[in-house]
């Protein structure tokens, strides 16, 4: 039987960012340096395939520092941690390595600097996401106010509207965040913010690539995990920019082929924590059913790389 033709638009850039790459390397190097088990507080990056792979090599994933024994090293995930976490590890004299993405650490420093300058902090982010918890945890409890939507801005109660600053989660939707920032500026004209939102280069580039292809795709599949903020934002960006079927898939086995019946083009991208091997798996699944022509939609070239911390670079 001849296969129906399908144009497959492949987003570039897609998949792993420099912060995820560094965090995974840190766990692998820790396992080499200290042997198994190495403890990791929270999923090192939000991807089951990556986490399962590291678990098989001897990493043990826990949610709280209290679940780690004192005599084994512990690594903090790429999303960042409240200040109380490394402080507790130091008190227990544990060996710890902070795999927080440097771009998240930059936001932590910004929040502290604004607070030191007497400004009250507002964070634009998603309640309960580990990055939001980590950034808010750079200052004493109750010091950082969280807003998630433009509607939240109307209700936020501040100490002094003249002394305010904001930071954002790094993995938000660029367009949704711009609306929240506009609402903040309208209500608090004196508010201080970053020159550009704290949304990172990887989130920005992946969203731009999706925007460039959303209208020409009958369907868009984002390879990523349901708890990956930047992956979920890519699904939303696809839908908002004109793609009528925009879905998250963890693996090829999650593709709903019935929903794709009759399509002649599909866009594929991957969140910043999704490995390329899963993208290839999805492409192969399409090749098995369609006569595929691949077109790359490239909107940026990335060459960002972050160094691993010194404690792991030194000889054991
Ligand atoms: S998505 Fe951005 S902030 Fe998050 S780990 Fe990657 S580079 Fe860092």
Automatic annotation (TrEMBL):
Its cofactor is [4Fe-4S] cluster. Its EC number is 1.17.7.4. [4Fe-4S] cluster binds at residues 17, 101, 200. It catalyses: isopentenyl diphosphate + 2 oxidized [2Fe-2S]-[ferredoxin] + H2O = (2E)-4-hydroxy-3-methylbut-2-enyl diphosphate + 2 reduced [2Fe-2S]-[ferredoxin] + 2 H(+); dimethylallyl diphosphate + 2 oxidized [2Fe-2S]-[ferredoxin] + H2O = (2E)-4-hydroxy-3-methylbut-2-enyl diphosphate + 2 reduced [2Fe-2S]-[ferredoxin] + 2 H(+). Isopentenyl diphosphate binds at residues 46, 79, 129, 228-230, 273. It comes from the Bacteria. (2E)-4-hydroxy-3-methylbut-2-enyl diphosphate binds at residues 46, 79, 129, 170, 228-230, 273. It comes from Pseudodonghicola xiamenensis. This is 4-hydroxy-3-methylbut-2-enyl diphosphate reductase. The active site is at residue 131. Belongs to the IspH family. The gene is ispH. Dimethylallyl diphosphate binds at residues 46, 79, 129, 228-230, 273. Catalyzes the conversion of 1-hydroxy-2-methyl-2-(E)-butenyl 4-diphosphate (HMBPP) into a mixture of isopentenyl diphosphate (IPP) and dimethylallyl diphosphate (DMAPP). Acts in the terminal step of the DOXP/MEP pathway for isoprenoid precursor biosynthesis. Binds 1 [4Fe-4S] cluster per subunit.
């Amino acid at each position: 039987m001849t296969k129906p033709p399908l144009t497959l638009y492949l987003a570039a850039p897609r998949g792993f960012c420099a912060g995820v790459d560094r965090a995974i390397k840190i766990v692998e190097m820790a396992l080499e340096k200290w042997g198994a088990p190495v403890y990791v507080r929270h999923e090192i990056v939000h991807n089951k395939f990556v986490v399962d792979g590291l678990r098989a090599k001897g990493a043990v994933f826990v949610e709280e520092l209290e679940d780690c024994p004192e005599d084994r090293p512990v690594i903090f995930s790429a999303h960042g941690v409240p200040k109380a976490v490394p402080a507790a590890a130091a008190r227990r004299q544990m060996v710890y390595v902070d795999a927080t993405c440097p771009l998240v650490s930059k936001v932590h420093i910004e929040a502290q600097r604004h607070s030191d300058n007497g400004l009250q902090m507002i964070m634009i982010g998603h309640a309960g996401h580990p990055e939001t918890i980590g950034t808010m945890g750079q200052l004493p409890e109750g010091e950082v106010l969280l807003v998630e939507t433009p509607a939240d801005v109307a209700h936020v109660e501040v100490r002094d509207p003249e002394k305010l600053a904001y930071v954002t989660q790094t993995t938000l939707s660029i367009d949704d965040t711009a609306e929240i920032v506009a609402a903040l500026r309208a209500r608090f004209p004196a508010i201080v913010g970053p020159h550009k939102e704290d949304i990172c280069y990887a989130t920005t580039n992946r969203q731009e690539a999706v925007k460039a292809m959303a209208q020409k795709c009958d369907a868009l599949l984002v390879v990523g995990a349901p708890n990956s903020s930047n992956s979920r934002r890519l699904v939303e960006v696809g839908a908002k920019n004109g793609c009528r079927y925009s879905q998250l898939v963890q693996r090829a086995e999650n593709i709903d082929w019935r929903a794709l019946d009759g399509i002649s083009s599909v866009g594929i991208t991957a969140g910043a924590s999704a490995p390329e091997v899963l993208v290839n798996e999805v492409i192969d699944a399409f090749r098995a059913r369609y006569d595929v022509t691949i077109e790359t939609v490239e909107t940026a070239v990335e060459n960002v790389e972050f160094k691993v911390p010194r404690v792991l670079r030194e000889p054991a």
